[in-house]
Each structure stands twice: as structure tokens, then as C-alpha cells.
Amino acid sequence: MAETHPAARLSARARRAIRAAGLHVALAGLLGFVPAPAFAQPAPDGGAEVRPIAGARPNILFILVDDMGFADLSIMGNRKVATPNLDRLAREGVLMTRFYDAAPICSSSRAGFLTGRFPPELGFVSITGARKRNAELGQVDWLDPELPNIARTLQSAGYATAHFGKWHLGGGRDIGDAPRPTAYGFDRSFTTFEGLGPRVLVSDEERDLAEQSDRLGNGARFWEIKTRLTGLYCDMAASFIAEHADRPWFVNLWLNDVHDPWAPGDEALGDVMGKGDGPDDDRFLATLVKMDKTLGRLFDRLRQMGEFENTLIVVTSDNGPSSLQRYYRDGASAPGSAADLRGRKFSLYEGGIRQPLILSWPRHARAGTRDERSVGHGADLLPTFARLAGVPTPRESDGVDLSSVIEGRPMTRGQPLFWAYGKEGAPVQPSTPSQPRDVSPRFAVRDGDWKLLAEAGGARPQLFDLAADPTETHEAGARNPAVRDRLLARLRAWMASLPPYASRP
Predict the structure, then answer these.
(1) What are residue 34's phi and psi, to 5 degrees?
(2) How many separate helices (H) and strands (E) can be counted in the chain?
(3) Is there a contact between 440 and 423 (Cβ–Cβ < 8 Å)?
(4) What are the angstrom distances between the C-alpha of 70 and each of 100, 154, 321, 327, 356?
(5) What pLDDT score does 505 carry?
(6) CA 243/CA 334 separation, integer angstroms
(7) CA 339: distance to chain centroid?
(8) N or C: which end of the chain has fewer CB within 10 A?
(9) Do the beta carbons of residue 402 and residue 380 sit within 8 Å?
(10) C-alpha dihedral (252, 190, 394, 409), degrees to nearest 10
(11) 463 DSSP β-pair partners
């Protein structure tokens, strides 16, 4: 018997959803998307059987914004422009304000989100760049596809899985043999010049990276201007969701428009002109507002499709706002805000790694909750999603389940958090912020309200009491030597457990 085309097997509800969305479903065929077989991966190796919370097993949409600062959303204090759609999502769900990225830089942060691990344990200490630079830093060229991760964990539970947007976990520059995102448990993927497989190449910004990606081949690709990327990714996400309306789904929507250089388009720029502190800030703010509007349209589509009510939408950023010197002209602040937190991108001070986390899930998330107490981390998403899907968390995970936070009950974290940006023994180290005050030591640990940072070998430790001093202004080690020594011992022990630096050709 001839194989039935997948579209013919869709339910009436799914077909109505596709028609209602009015989306470019045919684009998938044009770019050669081939969904992987359902249930293709074995269940993750975990502990005792885990059951979802009552009425759970939601769809999951994970929106990761590139280089958005702690205070860039208006619900977090932005008074220059408004972000009403993300603000509404936060007001109708749970907003955590003490959530941490796994790193102050994109590749390592993303590795932590996806695997539930502290990135240096996996060889991630910076970004995945060119082979020579990776070797100098002690940075792996790509994420090991055999590692347990969110996509494979949910795929094993029957979820349809997709990745749309920036990848930056391998592929690009001069590396054309990295695994595609589909090697990690995604049924479908579409990325940009920092990944392989079907992808869009940016024609007007960072064109050198796009041209490098084009020369690598390894996937269908086309060119587009940067301002259209978020809309393209959202259309693809909505189309995938409509196709899989008969089963639970997980979608990574990893946006990169907020990463400089900003290219919002003339209309969006005209809407905010003069509201920023200068031309760079105007372009940043216009990009932020345009992203919020585009996401608002995606949320409306989910409502129209009947998919919003049982979807957990998670929104955060991968690291702090841009800290490059070229944006500090004439004494102005760089675009993007970390409020009064010390540090920005490339820094392990709070402004480089602390983010808001939005958790929206109608009738499950406790609406109107602003959680200022619970301490979350990027590694927590894997155990949280696994719990909601009713499958065990992989044993190796460094994260904890945030289900209680979703339900409005603050969580007390029992184990310390660790960070490393750079590698002991490496001849070079990753980029640093351009402002001296924001340049942090390379290693850090947080335990309770105490945070300690140190250089390689534990040199020059800095201790801060984040409850009393969230801006990390007053070093507290001399007044609290016992706390300093205890945390330094914990940090050194963790550093000693990391893969050692080994030179590579």
C-alpha cells in the first residue's frame, strides 16, 4: 500500500488550525525538512518513575532572547519604551527575578539550558567559534549530541520537537562538520549562520559570518535581511505547532534580533525615534519593541488555534546586554539595561548572568506572581520540563525542578550554583567587558545569599552578600572569613573536577 502523506492523517482540528493560522507550511518542503520518526529515542536514564503534576503534560514553547538585559522589559523597569505582550505574559503567569544563565556568553549559556548541566563540565567555556580559537580557549567545537538534553527527553515522551532560530552550539565559521540540531532530538530545525542544516543567512548585517556559512554548504539556505528574522521564525513555529496539534509539542524559539548590530527597519525605528540615549539606543529599543509585537502576534495565533491554554511559555535571555566599547560613545551608556546590577555580557557579576524568567501556563501558573525569593538557573529547565512531561530527569542534571515556582510557591535551593568563563591553563581567555568595573573574575559560586568569585586557582577571591548588596559593591570577605574560605573550598573542588585544558592542533 502506498504511504499516506502526513497531511492526510491530520485531524479536522489540526487542519482547521493550519487554515486559521494562514502560514507558509509549504516552506518546510522547500527547505527539505524531514520530520524524524516519533519515539525514535530511548527513554532517558533516570531514577524512579516520575508522574506529571495534576492536569499537566503541557505543550512547551521556550523563547530565548539573545543579549536582552535584566531590565530591558518594561515590566522589569524600562521606562523608555513598552513591551506590553511580554509584560502581559508575565502578569498572567509567574515572573522570577532571581534567575541565572549558565554563562555570560551565548554558546555556553545555551548548552546549559539544553542539557541541564553546568557548561564547563561539558567543555563549554566561551562561544563556539573558529577551530583555532576554540582550541586556544579549550572550548569544544560543538555540543556532544549523545548528551541527554531537553529535546531528546521530550521526544522520548512522545512530544513533537522543533528548533527555530539561533543555534550557536556548533557549525559556522570554518566548521562545517558539526551535527545539525536534528541530531539532538529535534524533529525539525531551521537556524541561521551559527548552525547547520536548513537556515537563513543575513544579508545586511554580519555578512562575513553569513558568507562563511554559505561556503560550508550542509543544508538548504537563503538570504534575508535581519529585521525579518523574528517574524520568519515565529511563522515557522506556528506552522509546526499547527501541524502537530494532535500531540504535545516542544518548540525552541531562539531569537537573535536583539543581539547587536540592531536592524529594526525604518518603520519600527520611526516609532521610537528620540526615545533612546542616542542612535544606537534608538535602534536597540526599536528592535526590542518590534520583537515584542511579533511575539504578541504569535501568542494570538496560539489562542486562535486553541493551543495557548495548555502551553507553558518560558521566556528569558541568554546573557546580559551588550558591553562592547563602540556603544559607549561620548560617555553614553551602551544600549540594553542591567538596571543597577554590576556587569554586562562577558561578566560573571550579576548584570552578566542574572535575568528575569517568565513562566506562563494558564490555569496552572499562579497568575500575578512576582517571585523575588526563588533562585533559578538555566540548568533547571530540563528537570522542570521532564517533570511536567512525566518522564525521569537524566541523572547527570545539575538543575532542580521549578514546578513549585510555577504553582506560586517559592523554592529554597539546597545546592550551590557554579560558573566558569574561560579555562584554567588555557593560553588565552574569552572576551571581557569594555568597562573596567564590569570585568569579573573567571569563576564563581553562589550558595544561599552568598556569592564568591575568583580567578584561576582560587586567586583573588571576592565575596558578596547578595541579600544586603545585590549590586556587588562591597567586598565582604574580610568581614566574613569563614564564609569566604568555605565557598572558596567548594569552588576549588568544582574547578578541579572540570576537564583539564589540553592543547589541540
Answers:
(1) -130, 105
(2) 14, 15
(3) no
(4) 10, 29, 8, 18, 6
(5) 77
(6) 42
(7) 20
(8) N
(9) yes
(10) 0
(11) 452
The alpha helices in 157-265, defined as continuous H runs, are: 207-216, 229-243
Question: Residue 95 has which C-alpha cell?
Answer: 515572573
The HSE-up count of residue 459 (CA atoms within 13 Å, CB side) is: 5
Instruction: Write out the three cell numbers for 52.
Output: 506529571
* CA–CA dist 266, 263 (Å, integer): 9
Identity at 305, one-letter amino acid code: M
Q: How far apart are CA 251 and CA 302, in angstroms?
A: 13
> How far is it, in rounded angstroms, from Cα 227 to Cα 66?
14
Query: Which DSSP string do the residues of 374-416 spell out, in sequence order?
Result: --EEGGGHHHHHHHHHT-PPPTT------HHHHTT------S-
Residue with cell 560550508: 216
Q: How far is CA 358 from the centre of its chain?
A: 12
> Distance (Å, rounded) from C-alpha 462 to C-alpha 444?
9
Residue 245 near residue 11 (C-beta atoms within 8 A): yes
- Distance from the Cα of residue 337 to its chain's centroid: 18
261 upstream amide cis, omega within 30 of 0: yes
The burial of 182, by beta-carbon neighbours within 10 Å (0-12 exposed, 13-18 middle, 19 or more buried), is given as buried
Beta-carbon contacts of residue 176 (< 8 Å; ≥ 6 apart) = 196, 216, 217, 218
- In order of 275, 278, 286, 447, the CA distances from 282 in angstroms are 6, 6, 6, 39
- Strands (DSSP E) found in 192-299: 199-202, 221-224, 249-255
> Is-above-0.85 flag for pTM?
yes
Listing DSSP states for 410-446 in one string gives -----S-EEEESS-TT-SS-----SSGGG---SEEEE
Tell me if residue 323 falls in helix, strand or coil. coil
What letter would DSSP give residue 392? P
* Residue bearing cell 554563562: 103
Q: Distance from CA of residue 245 to its chain's centroid?
A: 25
Instruction: Indicate the burial class of 144 (C-beta count within 10 angstroms; 0-12, 13-18, 19 or more).
Output: middle
Angstrom distance (rounded) from CA 257 to CA 364: 31
Q: 199 has which bridge partners?
A: 191, 221
The H-assigned helical ranges of 116-170 are: 131-137, 150-156
Nearest-angstrom CA–CA distance, 285 and 340:
19
Q: What is the pLDDT of residue 332?
A: 83
CB 122 within 8 A of CB 115: yes
Alpha carbon dihedral 467, 473, 479, 481, in 10-degree steps, equals 80
Mean pLDDT in runs of 10 for the chain (505 residues)?
A: 37 43 43 36 38 70 98 98 98 98 98 98 98 97 98 98 98 98 98 97 96 98 98 98 97 97 97 96 98 98 97 98 92 93 98 98 96 98 97 95 97 97 96 97 98 98 98 98 98 97 86
